[in-house]
Amino acid sequence: MTDQTRSRVLAGHSVVITGAGRGLGAAFARLAAAEGARLVVNDINAAAARQIAVELGEVTEAIADSSDVSSWHGAERLIGTCIARYGSIDGLVSNAGVIAVGRPEEATEADLRHVIEVNLLGTAFCGVHALRAMLLQGRGSIVNVTSGAQLGLPTVAAYAASKGGITSLTYSWAAATKGSGVRVNAVSPDAATPLAAEVAQHFPDTPAGDKSPESNAPAVVYLLSDLASSVTGQVVLTGGERLSVLDPPSPRRPAARQPEWTVELVAQAFRERWS
């Protein structure tokens, strides 16, 4: 079946994409629109959201929204806008994110709060409101956007922490919604984005994404679609030629065992097993 004749995989789906005014979010929105989704294009930059919504309006129904997802009521309003306009919410891509670049000891309270509130709480707030609606519907797909930074990057510690939290949210929500018809997954993109450029500007030696945002979009659209009806609780690594799935964290095996642990025995275990 050719691309011209096959059915569009998101036809009839109503989807919210946060942070969709540029970069990865815009790429996700464009492919979702091409695949038939009706969209709510969210971005705190209202002009950017409108620009993408107007562009996508040529191929699908799309509306712009500038709700602040780091606000509980802003997230509630965003999800409610989708339901009011389209009658349901079938998909949510929580992509909105910010970054604060610098050595961890140089961070300010404002930096830390802003990154955690937008990235982690914004994802949590939107997800909770979407889950409430999706569970009542008995269907829906949430795709959270995490990052390989969760494994630790010295110049974006708060960002890394927020992304680790998003991965944990994904695993937890997937476990909680198993068998409900609602699915929760995440993608960990590799992409040349404005956030990656900001890191590279200040710390050129820090690894940064170099793949196109568009190369990450097919996996997101797949996870939103009914093609992925059996897929939940997965973190998918995307970008360029790469596609793989992250193994959930687990203890190193076999475990060291002692009838009773002492400080010296703990030191010995680390020296002999894990140093």
TrEMBL record:
The cross-references to CDD domains, in alphabetical order and at most eight, read:
SDR_c
What's any GO biological process attached to this entry? fatty acid elongation
One Gene Ontology MF term: oxidoreductase activity, acting on the CH-OH group of donors, NAD or NADP as acceptor
- Top-level division of the source organism's lineage: Bacteria
What the entry lists under InterPro entries is as follows:
NAD(P)-bd_dom_sf, SDR_fam
Cite the SUPFAM superfamilies for this sequence: NAD(P)-binding Rossmann-fold domains (SSF51735)
Q: Which family does it belong to?
A: Belongs to the short-chain dehydrogenases/reductases (SDR) family.
Could you identify this protein by its name?
Answer: Short-chain dehydrogenase
Write down the species.
Answer: Mycobacterium saskatchewanense
